[in-house]
Structure formats: C-alpha cells, structure tokens
Write a structure and sequence with these properties.
4 helices; alpha+beta; about 130 residues; 3-stranded mixed beta sheet; Arc Repressor Mutant, subunit A; two-stranded antiparallel ribbon; 5 strands
C-alpha cells in the first residue's frame, strides 16, 4: 500500500484531469503546478505503482514513449490520435469495427489498435496565424 503524499495526489490529479493520455514528462509538468519541487524519478515511480495498483493504463504508441491514462478512460475500447507538431496524444472516442474482414482468408483477428497521425486543433490554429 502506498502513502498518499502531496506528490502522489498531484500526479493522480494531473492524469485524471488531463482528459487524454500523457507522457511522463507531461505528467511531471502538470503535477509541478501543485508540487513545484517534484522530480522525474518520483513521477516514474508513482506511475509504475499506479499501474501495478490498476489505477493507470500504459498506452504504447509506435515510435514513441508510452503514454498513460486513468483506468476510467480505458474502460471503453478506443484508439488514439498523435499530433505531429506537438507530440500530444488524444483519445478517439469509439471504435470502427470491421477490421476482421481485412485479414487474409483463414486468419483470425484477436485485437486491433489504430493510431491516427496529423495536427491537433491547437497546433492547426497556431499554423493559421503564420
């Protein structure tokens, strides 16, 4: 059982309130708003602990470090969007079905993971100003 320190509370709050999967660096930056002296080692230890406790889910993304989202966000199967400009990850609500039909004849699909890439609304708006 882990202690509920100010650092741990700040990390949990950052992950819960973000509304999207976060990298460890993003968790650090957000949690430092509440606990300015928070270090990256504490963030990694806490993330590992929260995963072991079942409160967090690791979101592996191709060509990128894992992101993390609160267990509640992961309850419904969904996919992700990665912004090529800022690197942020976003949840895509729902899931397109029909991937089973794309497999070669005789193959059995046991899962799927779709990652979309592009430019998020924040980065797209910034680009329009140029």
């Amino acid at each position: 059982m882990s202690r509920n320190t100010a650092q741990r509370k700040a990390i949990r709050r950052s992950l819960r309130e973000a509304g999207r999967p976060l990298s460890a660096v993003e968790v650090l930056e957000l949690a430092q708003r509440d606990v300015p002296g928070l270090g990256v080692a504490t963030v990694y230890r806490t993330i590992k602990s929260l995963i072991e406790e079942g409160d967090l889910i690791a979101v592996p993304l191709p060509g990128s470090s894992d992101r993390y989202e609160h267990r509640d966000a992961a309850l419904n199967h969904h996919h992700h969007f990665i912004c090529n400009a800022c690197g942020r990850a976003y949840d895509i609500p729902g899931c397109t079905m029909g991937f089973e039909g794309m497999a070669p004849p005789g193959f059995v699909v046991s899962g799927r993971d779709v990652v979309l890439y592009g430019v998020c609304d924040r980065c797209g708006e910034a680009g329009e100003d140029s």
